[in-house]
Amino acid sequence: MHKHFPTKYKPYSLSHTHTLSSLCCIYMERTETVCCYCGVSYLIFHEFQQLRTELAQLEAELQDLRETAQKEKAQREALELGRLEKAVCSKARSTSAKCLQVAAQDPQI
């Protein structure tokens, strides 16, 4: 949905995150949206703050995903270790049973 704006204003895509004050700033001259002390445009500063907040949220989500991946890896390793231990115990029992059979057949051992 593209609206026609007078030629002295640039078209600006409006999103649901804009407040009334930021919408008013869109139609102001650049000199009216610049901070008197630092010279940074309020629009740019606002967008920068939004990006910073989004970055922090994404970093937190990434950290959660990394922790989840580590937990799943540890669980897989524990499961594999359990399987290996079960296989070793099974082989040990069969070896022990064979030793008992041989000992029963040959009393000199």
From TrEMBL:
InterPro entries named among the record's database cross-references: LEKR1
Coiled-coil residue spans: 48-82
Keyword field: Coiled coil
Coiled coil among keywords: yes
Protein name per UniProt: Uncharacterized protein
